[in-house]
Amino acid sequence: MFFKKTQNRIFDHRPRFYDPEKDETEKRKRKLKFRNNSHVKRRTKLPIIWILIIAIIIYLYLQFGSGVI
Fold it and tell me: What predicted TM-score, i.e. pTM, was given to this entire model?
């Protein structure tokens, strides 16, 4: 009654570089849940490779290096 009711602020923001065609394609891609392959991380078999390399090094050390130490 004695106080003003607060109102929301109104912003008028216009983007500098707006491409309506690109915006439509982005909306379609999001709707179809399209992903670019660069964003998908492919899981490689690196732990297996590291285990094989370490096993080979241990084998070679036991065959040729056991008499040195």
Answer: 0.34
Q: What is the mean pLDDT of the chain?
A: 79
DSSP 8-state symbol, 30: H
Residue-level pLDDT at 15? 76
**Structural domain contains residue 52:** yes
Half-sphere exposure of 42 (CA within 13 A, CB side): 5
Task: Please give the Cα distance from 17 to 52 (Å, whole number).
Answer: 52
**Total number of domains in the chain:** 1
> Residue 68 belongs to what domain range?
44-69
